[in-house]
Write a sequence for this structure.
């Protein structure tokens, strides 16, 4: 029986750090010696190859340039490997998982992101379990075909759909949550795959298409009681601004102050797409449910439904370069493209 081939891609982050025994300082781990450090990997029924970015990236410095690098690594190795595991800093992992889900069209193999809260060399590290199970998940096959055919995020015994995740805790090992979509898998005594929640992908005959242009001239605006007219006007009038993600209250509500609504009307007339997402960790935008959001619907704001802010931002970056008409853009945004929202 031919064993699956998994490519382990190290981009940076805590998981790839080890503590110098003498100085106590953290330094990047040499992944060429991975099997020496984690001999348990030999027990996995797959062949593992490693590839490291030249310079480890702190996830706080993550940006679309590095997303393109990751996508290109997957593109150039797509026919050679059966699955991919990306080691990544946890702070921006949900953004990267969301971005890659849109950039990798017709994906028919697993791309699993993972990381850790403690370095791989730490006595109580969560890195080993996250790494081992991520590889195991990426190597899962049924009748010679991958079981997972989407971008996932594995952390602390759970596999999530990548574009449904948000980092919720900076200290606990259980750092991520997917509040609007069930877990894809749970790791316990047995690895339980929730098959009914896996992404139903395109036909295997369709070729992988990698989108490498992401529009970054966008803004994220979080409403709060007392937000000033001057501040919002300065954001909306930024030269070259192509789109805005607006974090509103509850089910998509906002202030009905005339100056605020006029600002949205002016932006709408300029054909500036404004995406309405909720500030709540879970739940969905439902414009028109309350009087305060009915006007937003009339103005033409686009509903982010139950998308995370991370997914909404990345979807906006992905769709803007397509240069769709306002009507087609709205239709495309409000449609689930990679399982990022509930249809």
């Amino acid at each position: 029986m031919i064993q699956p081939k998994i490519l382990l891609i190290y981009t940076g982050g805590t998981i790839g750090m080890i503590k110098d025994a003498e100085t106590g300082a953290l330094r990047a781990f040499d992944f060429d010696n991975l099997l020496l450090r984690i001999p348990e990997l030999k027990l996995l029924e797959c062949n593992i190859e490693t590839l490291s970015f030249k310079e480890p990236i702190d996830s706080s410095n993550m940006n679309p340039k590095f997303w393109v690098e990751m996508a290109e690594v997957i593109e150039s190795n797509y026919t050679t490997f059966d699955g991919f595991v990306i080691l990544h800093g946890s702070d921006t992992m949900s953004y990267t998982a969301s971005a890659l889900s849109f950039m990798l069209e017709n994906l028919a193999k697993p791309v699993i992101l993972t990381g850790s809260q403690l370095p791989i060399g730490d006595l109580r590290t969560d890195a080993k379990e996250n790494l081992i199970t991520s590889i195991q998940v990426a190597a899962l096959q049924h009748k010679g075909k991958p079981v997972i055919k989407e971008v996932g995020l594995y952390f602390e015994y759970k596999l999530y759909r990548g574009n449904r995740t948000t980092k919720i805790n900076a200290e606990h090992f259980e750092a991520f949550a997917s509040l609007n979509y069930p877990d894809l898998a749970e790791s316990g005594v047995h690895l339980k795959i929730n098959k009914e929640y896996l992404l139903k992908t395109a036909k295997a005959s369709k070729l992988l298409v990698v989108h490498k242009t992401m529009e970054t001239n966008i803004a994220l605006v979080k409403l709060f009681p007392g937000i000033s007219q001057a501040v919002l006007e300065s954001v909306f009038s930024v030269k070259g601004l192509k789109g805005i993600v607006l974090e509103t209250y509850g089910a998509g509500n906002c202030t009905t102050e005339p100056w605020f609504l006029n600002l949205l009307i002016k932006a709408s007339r300029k054909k500036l797409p404004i995406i309405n997402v909720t500030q709540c960790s879970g739940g969905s935008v439902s414009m028109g449910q309350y009087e305060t959001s009915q006007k937003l619907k009339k103005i033409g704001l686009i509903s982010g439904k139950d998308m995370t802010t991370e997914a909404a931002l990345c979807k906006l970056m992905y769709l803007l370069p397509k240069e769709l008409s306002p009507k087609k853009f709205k239709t495309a945004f409000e449609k689930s493209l990679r399982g990022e929202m509930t249809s």
Summary: The domain at 5-210 is CATH 3.40.50.1170 (Rossmann fold).
